[in-house]
């Protein structure tokens, strides 16, 4: 029946908690098992939702000590002041000398020229503006969803 029966089995299925929070990825085989056991419902071709709330393990939560690479990833390798993708570095929004910490809320990707321009000043004294307010992602799933470029999944990125 090849050609007439077109069931698309995608490799990766996004699993949402009952609260619609993305918690995991699985493959379709395991997704089917969850569905057959009435533990999940289908929301779309690539998304299922658990019917019972699952408490997230602490390991899935993002710590407030981000690595440099996770800041680059969150900021999509773009200067958060001018949008440049060249000669990037990490900028402390509130300079270290003024008590700014190494936190998700205080670290952004900046190009060298914005970084130099900003120097050791507070943002409000520079006339520069952040394109987005730096935030700490709620859990590591958010990264994967942003990176996936799959619209069906990105609907479930929470603010
Ligand atoms: Zn810049």
Observed structural traits:
two-stranded antiparallel sheet; 4-stranded mixed β-sheet; 6 strands; single chain; 159 residues; binds zinc ion
User: What strand line-up does the widest sheet have?
Assistant: 2-1-4-3
> Low-confidence spans: pLDDT under 50, at least 5 residues?
1-7
Tally the beta strands.
6
**Classification by helices and strands:** alpha+beta
Ligand inventory reads:
zinc ion
Would you give an account of this structure?
The protein is α+β, with helices and mostly antiparallel strands and 159 residues long. It is 22% helix and 18% strand. The protein has helices at 28-36, 68-74, 112-118, 141-148, 151-154, and strands spanning 13-16, 22-26, 40-44, 47-50, 88-92, 107-111. A four-stranded mixed sheet has the order 2-1-4-3, with helices on one face. β1 and β2 form a beta hairpin. The relative contact order is 0.17. Zinc ion binds at residues 79, 81-82, 84, 110-111, 113-114.
Q: Can you give me a brief rundown of this structure?
A:
This protein is 22% helix and 18% strand. It has helices at 28-36, 68-74, 112-118, 141-148, 151-154, and strands at residues 13-16, 22-26, 40-44, 47-50, 88-92, 107-111.
């Amino acid at each position: 029946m090849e050609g007439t029966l077109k069931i698309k089995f995608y490799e990766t299925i996004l699993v949402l908690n009952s609260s619609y929070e993305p918690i995991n990825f699985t493959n379709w085989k395991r997704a089917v098992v969850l569905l057959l056991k009435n533990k999940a419902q289908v929301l779309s071709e690539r998304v299922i939702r658990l019917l019972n709330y699952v408490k997230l393990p602490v390991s899935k939560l993002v710590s407030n000590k981000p690595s440099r690479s996770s800041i680059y990833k969150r900021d999509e390798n773009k200067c958060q002041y001018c949008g440049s993708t060249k000669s990037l570095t990490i900028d402390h929004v509130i300079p270290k000398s003024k008590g700014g910490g190494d936190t998700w809320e205080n670290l952004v990707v900046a190009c060298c020229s914005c970084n130099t321009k900003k120097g050791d000043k507070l943002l409000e004294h520079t006339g520069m503006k952040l394109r987005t307010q730096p935030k700490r992602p709620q859990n590591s799933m958010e990264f994967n969803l942003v990176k996936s470029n799959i619209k069906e999944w990105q609907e479930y990125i929470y603010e």
